[in-house]
Specification:
Elements (H helix, E strand, L loop, with lengths): L8 E2 L12 E8 L7 E7 L5 E3 L2 E2 L1 H4 L18 H21 L7 E5 L5 H8 L3 E5 L3 H11 L17 E7 L8 H11 E12 L4 H6 L13 E2 L2 H10 L2 E8 L1 H14 L5 H19 L4 E8 L4
The protein binds zinc ion.
Length: 304
């Protein structure tokens, strides 16, 4: 088990989505991934937004990412888990690109939290001018070499020119970002008024989330500070003048999240159970549209 040396917590007094100041406790979830510590999730009484509260201070949050398996590098060690994981990655990337570039011209793309640069690499192969930011030093250096472009620390975002991107993507990244207002204001400034914003998020209203409860890997506390659904991401984006245009499923995530959740449950035959539950989650979601993870596509509001 991994031990965090000394915890310093921060507490939210206002809902990060609507600014309301009254919450109730939604649940207590364990960090099964790394520390086995418990974290509370608060729910806003006004907009129902869920957020990890209290949550680790900036000075110690990196302690919660200290695991080889958290880095989104292609896995080299052979195991059924890494085999499935890498297979999903390959199939996923093509689908991601197809969905988010549908109906738009090639241009400048910024991937915020680009990890090892898989998505950017694919965009580059399809003639996009690519830009990436990534907080993790190791992943950043890996991605820079991989894509052959400098990948920046997120602090660099302020140096990007206003209205310079046609497409900005955040693949399972926004839920990790502490100050949503700072991030959204930056996106608003650097995205062209004709540009597209794409945000992929886990969905706690999915069948697999309900099935696994506190063992659901999509909670991923305390690394996930925010837990969005269709309504709360729309309210937040709307405050910055973004309209929700489309929502697409990430069908592979149901399998991946089920696989992790089964591992947290220490279940035997976990690959088989994950396959079965991932499949069930996607089947249910065909009716409810509550897939395990969702891709939200936003456009800027027209000025007239
Ligand atoms: Zn709220």
């Amino acid at each position: 088990m991994f031990h965090v040396k000394q915890d310093i917590y921060k507490t939210r007094k206002y809902c990060p989505v609507c600014g309301n100041d009254s919450f109730k406790q939604h649940s207590v979830v364990t960090d099964y991934f790394l520390t086995k510590k418990e974290f509370s999730i608060s729910q806003c009484k006004k907009c129902d937004f869920l957020f990890t509260n209290p949550y680790p201070d900036d000075s110690i949050i990196s302690e919660y990412y200290k695991s080889d398996s958290y880095l989104s590098h292609p896995k080299s060690k052979f195991s059924i888990f890494s085999l499935v994981y890498n297979l999903i990655r390959r199939l996923n990337i093509k689908n991601k690109y197809r969905v988010v570039t549908k109906g738009i011209e090639v241009g400048n793309v910024l991937d915020i939290g680009c990890g090892s640069g898989d998505f950017l690499n694919y965009c580059k192969e399809h003639n996009w001018k690519i830009y990436g930011v990534e907080p993790n030093t190791e992943a950043r250096e890996f991605a820079s070499k991989r894509v052959g472009e400098e990948i920046f620390h997120p602090d660099h975002q302020k140096y990007f020119q206003s209205q310079s991107f046609d497409l900005i993507t955040l693949w399972h990244v926004l839920e990790h970002i502490d100050d949503l207002d700072v991030q959204f204001a930056e996106i608003k400034r650097i995205l062209k008024s004709t540009g597209r914003l794409v945000i992929a998020l886990p969905n706690y209203k999915s069948y697999d989330a309900n099935l696994y409860g506190n063992f659901w890997a999509g909670w991923d506390v305390p690394r996930h500070l925010h837990h969005f659904d269709r309504s709360t991401i729309s309210i937040l984006a709307k405050r910055y003048g973004f309209n929700l245009e489309n929502v697409y499923p990430m069908v592979w995530d149901a399998y991946y999240v089920s696989l992790l959740s089964e591992k947290y449950l220490n279940s035997r035959l976990f690959p088989l159970k994950a396959l079965s539950n991932g499949w069930k989650s996607n089947s249910k979601a065909r009716k409810t549209l509550e897939y395990s993870s969702l891709i939200y596509i936003f456009s800027s509001e027209s000025m007239d």
